[in-house]
Design goal:
This protein is of the alpha+beta class. It has one domain (19-119). Helix content is 23%, strand content 27%. The chain has helices at residues 51-59, 61-68, 72-83; strands spanning 8-11, 14-17, 27-28, 31-36, 96-101, 106-111, 114-119. α2 packs antiparallel against α3 (72-83).
Length: 128
Amino acid sequence: MSKKTPKLIRVNGALYRKAAPEFEKYIRNGKVGVIYSPGFGGGWNNGYVSKEEAAGRLMDKDLVELVLAGKAAEAAELSEERYNEPLSWRDKDVLKVQWVPVGSRFVIRENDGNEHVEIFNEGSWHVA
C-alpha cells in the first residue's frame, strides 16, 4: 500500500480535512461488531484520526465483514481509502471483532499496540 495524504478541502482560504464518510454499523443479535488489534506493534485504532473517522474504522459494516471473513489486509486497504488516513498498523493477520451491545459506551485501550475493548457499562468502575 502506498502512503496517502489526507484529503483536504479549502474553505474561505483555509484548509480542512475532508469530513469522514457516514457508515453503516454491522449489527448482529443486538450487538455491534467492533474491530480491534490484540497484537503488539502499531494498533488498528492509532488515535491520529478524528473521532468520526475512528468510529468508522472501528465499526464500518464493510470493514467488519472483511475481518470476519479473514480478509484483514483488504479491510486495511479499504479503511485507508475510505477514511483518508494511512494506518500505522502492521500485523495484517491480527484483527479481531468484539461484539458490543448496541448503545453501549466503549473505548479502545492499548499498550504498545496491543488493543482491547473496554465497555463502560460492564465490570466494576470506580466513581469519585
